[in-house]
Write a structure and sequence with these properties.
Number of helices: 14
Low-confidence stretches: none
Structural class: alpha/beta
Number of strands: 16
Distance between the termini: 53 Å
Radius of gyration: 23 Å
Mean pLDDT: 94
Largest sheet: 8 strands, mixed
Length: 421
C-alpha cells in the first residue's frame, strides 16, 4: 500500500481488534487505542483475549512493526482513518453513549484536513450526525463533510463463526455526503470482501438495529412457545426441526435461557428508546420481546425447582452447577449473559452455585460463584446441573453419567436424568 496510511482503531475488544488486525494484514499502519490498561499490557505481550484473533496473529502484527496498542490519544497524531468501536451499553434502560462522547472529544484535536472518522458502535438513528459530528467539529475547528469526512458502518462481528468472519461478511457503509461515502467505502473495500452502501448514516444505523431486533423478536417467539409447549406436553425442539424442513418461508430460531451479549439485550432497546423519545410512541414488538426474553432465567429457575421437587429436594440448600456462563457457545463473552441473572435468582433462593466455563477469564468471573472443573466429582456431588452454554470443550457423556439431575436449555443432552427446556 502506497505511503502506508495510518489507521486508528478506538476500542480493542471483540469488534475493534479484528478490524485492527485485518487493517495490518492489508498494509495499513495501525494504532489500537484502548482505555483498559490491563488489555493494552496483554496486547503488547501478544496475548489475545478475543476468540477470533489468535495470539499468533497478534504477535505477527506486533513483529511487523505496523501495530501498536496504546492508552494515549497522542498516538493518533496524523491519522488518516479512525474507526470508533467502543461499547454502547444501557444504563437503567437508557442508552449510554458516554464512550462515544469521550472518544470523539479525545480524537477531535487530532482530526486534520482530509481525515476520515467512522463510527461502528451500535446506536440509534441520528447518533453519527447529531452527536459525533458536532463533537468532532467543536474539538477540531473543522467542518465535517468539507474539511474532514465522517461515516457510519455497523459492526457485524459474529464471534466464533468460521464461515462468516469479518472479511467474508458484507459491510454496510455510509457517509456524510458523497465524498465521505466514497472514502469510507474505499477503506472497507480494502479490508473486506464486499460493501453495501446506503444513502446516509441514519439508514446504516437503523439497518443494524433492524438486524438485531429481527433476531430478538423471533427468539422471544420461540422462547414463549417453548414455555407453552412444555405445559402442553409437546416437544418444541422436535417441532422446530420439523418446521425447518420447509425450504421457504421459515427461518430456524431456537429457545434458550435468555439472550446475552451486547446485541440482543441492548440494541433493540436503543430503537425503542429513540421511537419513544422522538415520536412519543411505544415500539410494542421490542417491549414484548424484552419482557419475554428477560424473564427466561425466571422460567429456568421454575423448571429447576420442579425437577428438584420431583426428587423431594428443595432449591434452598441445594448445590447447583452451571455448565457454561458465556452468552454464546465457544465464546468468553459474558456481557449480559442470562447466566448472570440466573445466578442472582439461585443465590436469592439459597442455593450454592458453582460453574464450569474454561472460556471466561478470571477477572470476569461472577462474585460468589465457585469456579470448578468438568469432572465426574463436580457433577456427581451436586444436586442439579443446568446446561446454559454448550461449549464444545466439555465431555457431555461424563455430565450425563455423573449428574443426578440436568436441566438442558440447549437441547444438547439425552438421558433419563435430563430434562430439556
Amino acid at each position: 500500500m502506497e505511503n502506508k496510511k495510518k489507521v486508528v482503531v478506538i476500542g480493542q475488544g471483540y469488534v475493534g481488534l479484528p478490524v485492527a488486525m485485518r487493517a495490518v494484514q492489508v498494509g495499513y499502519k495501525v494504532v489500537g487505542l484502548e482505555v483498559d490498561k490491563r488489555r493494552v499490557e496483554g496486547l503488547l505481550l501478544g496475548e489475545s483475549y478475543v476468540e477470533d484473533i489468535s495470539s499468533k496473529e497478534l504477535l505477527a502484527a506486533l513483529e511487523s512493526g505496523n501495530y501498536q496498542a496504546s492508552l494515549d490519544y497522542e498516538d493518533a497524531t496524523d491519522f488518516d482513518i479512525a474507526v470508533i468501536t467502543v461499547p454502547t451499553p444501557l444504563r437503567e434502560s437508557v442508552p449510554d453513549l458516554s464512550y462515544i462522547e469521550d472518544s470523539a472529544r479525545s480524537l477531535a484535536e487530532y482530526v486534520r484536513v482530509g481525515s476520515t472518522v467512522v463510527l461502528e458502535s451500535t446506536t440509534y438513528p441520528g447518533t453519527t450526525e447529531e452527536l459525533l459530528v458536532p463533537l468532532l467539529e467543536a474539538g477540531s475547528g473543522l467542518r465535517a463533510g468539507t474539511d474532514f469526512y465522517v461515516g457510519y458502518s455497523p459492526e457485524r462481528i459474529d464471534p466464533g463463526n468460521k464461515t462468516w468472519g469479518f472479511v467474508e461478511t458484507p459491510k454496510v457503509v455510509s457517509g456524510l455526503g458523497e465524498e465521505s461515502l466514497h472514502r469510507v467505502r474505499a477503506f472497507y473495500d480494502s479490508i473486506v470482501d464486499s460493501t453495501v452502501p446506503v444513502s446516509s448514516p441514519k439508514e446504516a444505523e437503523l439497518a443494524k438495529l433492524l438486524e438485531n431486533t429481527f433476531r430478538h423478536v423471533n427468539i422471544a417467539l420461540v422462547n414463549e412457545m417453548a414455555v407453552f409447549a412444555n405445559q402442553l406436553g409437546v416437544n418444541i425442539w422436535e417441532s422446530i426441526e420439523a418446521a425447518s424442513s420447509k425450504p421457504f418461508g421459515f427461518m430456524k430460531f431456537t429457545p434458550g435461557p435468555g439472550v446475552g451479549g451486547h446485541c440482543l439485550p441492548v440494541d433493540p432497546s436503543y430503537l425503542s428508546w429513540q421511537v419513544r423519545r422522538k415520536l412519543g410512541q411505544n415500539f410494542r414488538f421490542v417491549e414484548l420481546a424484552n419482557d419475554i426474553n428477560d424473564h427466561m432465567p425466571d422460567y429456568v429457575l421454575q423448571r429447576l425447582m420442579m425437577g428438584l421437587n420431583k426428587r423431594r429436594l428443595a432449591l434452598g440448600g441445594s448445590t447447583v452447577v452451571l455448565a457454561g456462563l458465556a452468552y454464546k457457545k465457544n465464546s468468553s463473552d459474558i456481557r449480559e449473559s442470562p447466566a448472570l441473572r440466573l445466578i442472582e435468582l439461585l443465590q436469592e433462593a439459597g442455593a450454592e452455585v458453582k460453574a464450569v466455563d474454561n472460556h471466561v477469564e478470571a477477572y470476569r468471573w461472577p462474585a460468589g460463584v465457585e469456579r470448578v472443573t468438568a469432572t465426574e466429582a463436580t457433577f456427581s456431588s451436586s444436586h442439579a446441573t443446568i446446561l446454559i452454554t454448550d461449549h464444545d470443550d466439555v465431555d457431555y457423556e461424563l455430565v450425563v453419567r455423573a449428574a443426578p439431575l440436568i436441566l438442558d436449555t440447549r437441547n444438547r443432552l439425552a438421558g433419563p436424568n435430563v430434562e430439556v427446556l
